[in-house]
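Good morning C.,

I know you're traveling, so I'll keep this short. The sequence:
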Amino acid sequence: MLRMTSGAGRILISYAPDDAVHVDAVRDLWILLRAGGLDVELPTPAELAGLELDGPDLVVLIGSPLYREVAAAADPADADPDLWRAARAIGDMLDDAEKAAVVLPVVLPGGTVRDLPAILSGHTGTRHRLRTLSRRGVAALVAELHRRCGTVDSTPRHELCLEVSVAQSRVRSTATLAGTLLCERDEPLPFGRDEVWSLLDLPDADARLARLGQRLSAALFDADSLDQLTTLVAEATEGTVIDVVVTADGPAHELPFEMIRLTDQRVLAAVEGVRFTRTMAGLPDRVHPPTPGPLKILVAVGAPEHTASPALDIEAEMQAIVSVVGGLGRAEVTILEVAGPQEIADALRRDAYHVLHLSAHGSPYGVELEDRDGNAVEVQAEDLVRALRRGGRPVPLIVLSSCGGAADADAGLAATLLRHGAIRVIAMQTTVTDRYATSLITSVYRTLAEENTSVAVALAEARSEMYEEAVRAESSSRPEYAVPTLFATGDGPLWDAVARPEPLSNPTELPTGVGVRELALGELVGRRGELRVVLRTLRDEVAPSGQSELVNGVVLTGVGGIGKTALVGRAIDRLRDDIEDPWSIVVHGGSWNPPQLIEDIAATGAGAGVGDHQDQSLALTAITEALRNQRLLIVFDDFEQNLTVGGDDFLDPGFAEVFGELCHAAERGKILVTSRYPIPRPVPLLRVEVPRLSDAELGRLLLRLPALRELSSADRDTVVQAVGGHPRLLEFVDALLRGKAGTARLPEVTERLRRLAEQERVELARSAAKAPDAAEATRQAIALGARDMLLGELLDLLTPAEREALLQAAVSRVPLIGDDLAFAVHEREPSDEDRAAMAAHIGRLLGFTLVTSRDDGVLVESWVREALVDLQGERRLDRHRRAALMCHRIVAANRAGFEDLTEAVYHLRAADRFDELAMFAEKLLPSLDGELTVAAFLGEVTPGFPTDHVAYLELVRRERDALEATGSTAAAAAKGEEVVALTAGLVENEPQDPEALIELSSALDSQGRLLRHLGRMAEARDHYEQALGIDAHLCEVDPEDAQYQRNLGTSYQKIAQLALDCAEIGPAREAADQSLRIRQRLVDADPDNPVLHDDLGVGLVTLAAVCRAGDDAAQARQLVEQALAIWRPLVEAHPENENLLANLLDAVSALADLIGSAGAESEQARELIMEAASIVNRLAEANPGSIAYQRELLISYWQLGDMDLGAGDLACARQHFVGAVTLAERLADADPDSIDGQRDLATAFRRMADYSIANGEPQEVRGNLERSLEIAQTLVHRFPDNGAFHRDLARAGERLGGWVSDAGEPALARTLFDQALATWRRRVALDPGDLGARLAQAGVHDRLAELAQAAGDPARARRQWQRALAIVEKLHAETPTEESRNRLALYQTKLG
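The tokens, ready to paste straight into the viewer:
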């Protein structure tokens, strides 16, 4: 900041606290001066009176009537004593001519020079009379202060301190700026803070976080202080720094301070130059001086093989760190081979590090590290503290790149580390994506290494850059800007740029990245388990797999391009870290070349005299001695070049002898081999099969292949399904898609691809425009891969039986055990001889790498399957048929999982055996567990099934019903359209066939229901009316048919429900009456038919709902009671009938609501609510996957909560209302397309607001009402022609407007009421006959009038009441009602 020149003092403001307005103006001036780059202090008069002013101090004296009055007083007893003493001190300065220039008189806007105290009467300096308090208005004063000051620190700096504590659901805070109090607050905890991190994955997450940030700002700052802080940020000169330091107790750190929003809605923590630091209340400052460079980072990446946690993109994280270290010269890194507590302690004892980087799955209380066997090790905070203490050296910065390390500030990992001596901890407050964490840490480390800034600066710059990048890109990615946080007890640069460097004793040597064997860290995806086995075997750390025989090395086997060479390269890289007992390493690639091996070993210095022998046999003897006594590693790469095709024997028997001798001699030294085939002779080497990449590893590799990364998801699926987890083939596809003549990421891949393309006569595209599409690039890559793995030559080596076993296995997508494969080949139960022969066939196929071991069976990998397609020939269909029989056998033996069921479907479909597929599905469907399984199974059956097949209609209808039952409404509607089209085709073929017409009517009815749930009301109405037309036609043809009449009654009922949903009361009443008349007539004709009585009950409840919507509660109750009188005896007679139970539940719930809303007979309402709860629990338990019953359970929660509120039992009420919100959110998430789910969620928030009112939680009330309003707005935007949604939105706006009005926010209330008024107008435009909406309009005008009256604007209030009266007068003239009459009298009275 700019201060006085050398030897100068302070810049102080002296003022009198005339009134609140004047004090606010003084603070505004102070903020503007600081924003201008001046380190201006704002002491209170009492603080200023206690200062000893001298010449170097510069005082900005602000005149005011009180200041003039106090300064003129002869005695402090006659005035404010502190202000009087301050004025006297300034007067003493003015009496000295040399000091007079250090007082600058200022008059604020609205004041006059007469407000300046008399002590300035002899002052001849400039008097600054400010016209406005703005940057321009104070520019001359700022310039004058700059002229009088010299520069000590060219970077303007401000420190905003927040001291925060939380207790009893209230947050207490004190905010100071540069030591001056801004505000003190004691507010309810902001709404939504408990679920803040769950918002990150919801739609409109940015808007939701913005609202939470606003609520947090309102809790911590008053409006004036937040405005002043915003001005400071907005008006600050370039390069200004604002250090925000939050000192809080444990519970207070649960608040997301990094989400604080300024008045202009900017995120404070993301503003350039703002640096956020948290610290724990009560902890002393701990400053660790910088230590010699370069920046030294210890990396521990916890990625155990045996864990239930999902895979981390550990390669990307290591690549991020390496990208910082590589080439800078100012950073070094040690990446621990095993990320365990003891290994961390050992590393810290060896070297002094600046950073410990922990990357692992984690929780608020610990991280998941690993032991040397790859097992997960749960390391709690205390365990990590002990490990760091054993290390014996302080670590200035700990980076927890794990999820939730900062989530619990009482007992969490970050807090515990800080309390036990850690100086700085960067941690995450919740789960974080690999992408965000990696990008953030890359930026932080680069800044620390290149610029040697403080940690707060590095984190602030990274956060700000990533936030701005997301804003510029208008990214819809997860908004994670507030997730990282810095806990610190002190800060500053980590390393000393002046001191003599002290490099690490053994930094991780980074691979060059120029070839497959030198893949850069982060480029070798996966393979940690295999690498662990290789290294432990080579180091003689354990006897592998408990074997007793000697193991002198490892042979890595697997199909070409699977990653064997890259794995060897990484093993070599790790072995070079063994500096205490170093290795001599020689790589011998390809065919046996004795002179080259001898020369290479001699060059390492291993084996005395190896290079001195003219006789190669003597040299080889020296090599065997070296292997026996020295740490010599000989790597034989591409060993299959020394074997016959298929690997049955050595090409050179002499080399077989030599190789065996080398392997047996390698006691202290070791042998490491990569080969497509197993070694054909016994050698003491451990065979390690290198498998294809797992799905998680495959996903991570795709992110590193630029052309594949840019593909559409559909095209990427095409590639993945064909190629699977084969790294080289994926590299081939990526290179082919680029269209640069086969140029790949790595030179070796490019060379191989071009050589294979020449052999296969594949023309490589030389430009992106001519590059093949995904499907063609995949086909080309598989063809080249088949050539690469010598597929043709290997197949020539197979016997006919082995070839048939391979081709039969190749039609299956799942692993097969030998017994099942033998059955499929022979199409009968295999004999013992069949099983033995198949075991031999599989062994040979495994040796040729044509099949791979997987789980308990073997699998032909997808790229091999694709390459074998042309060889299947005419027998392909028959092999699929036999594979389907094999699956049937597995099912019959009760060995089938869901994968086996879908595999059977796949084979039957591939064999074009759709009759068998239909019978299989029909037989299987009743035994499947739950509708979700049914939907998934039929999702495999119906695609590709002939639509003209007799079974297809029933299959797709069943799939539609299963999708609807599991909440996939949009998908169900898509299937429903198929059903409608198919049944319409039946009618087209047989226009007069009653059964076909009934089928079509049913399909239209079901589709109407689905469209209604999706909010597509016009389409739903069209379907319902078509169904009604069919049913009416059938009744005309045969008016005596009771079933036709039932269907007609149902159609009228559905139309009534739809009209009710659209708030069309008249049409709803007409249709409901029609339905009820038909059903009553049917009951009268057949009084003993329970089905008809059930229909009648449904008609009564439907009409009751219409009556209630039309404000006729009395008739509604009467109708519901009639329905109950029907259903109670029916349920008693048929207690297991779920449909009757569900209908009884509807009636019981409806009657409970009617009685409860009437405010009387509370005991009866209570009994009904308890009865409904009992029924709904019974239904939900019997059908846990039913969305309909879950919705009924939701209604039960609300009713029970209302009952608890009425009884004053707030604890139970909270349990029910919170349960309702949780359930409603789950249902809405399960079926985001369903409008019922969204409306239920809005209702849940509204009911939660009712509870919060009763419990005295104003912030919770507002937050829940805001959420309810948000949902209503979303529905109106999606369905602008739906009158019911407009009604919901208007009511939600009114409710929130009323609340904020009562809370003292008239401006916001007026805005909400205006919006509600506009919504009611749109509702009336959609349905002019909605009398309730017109009355509601008048009601909103009344609320606006009351606001205007309270604001002292009677003219505006009168205009609003006149508008309300005009609406009601017109309505009363058209349709006089008691309500309109009462409103007339009310508004006339208000108008006088």
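Safe travels,
E.
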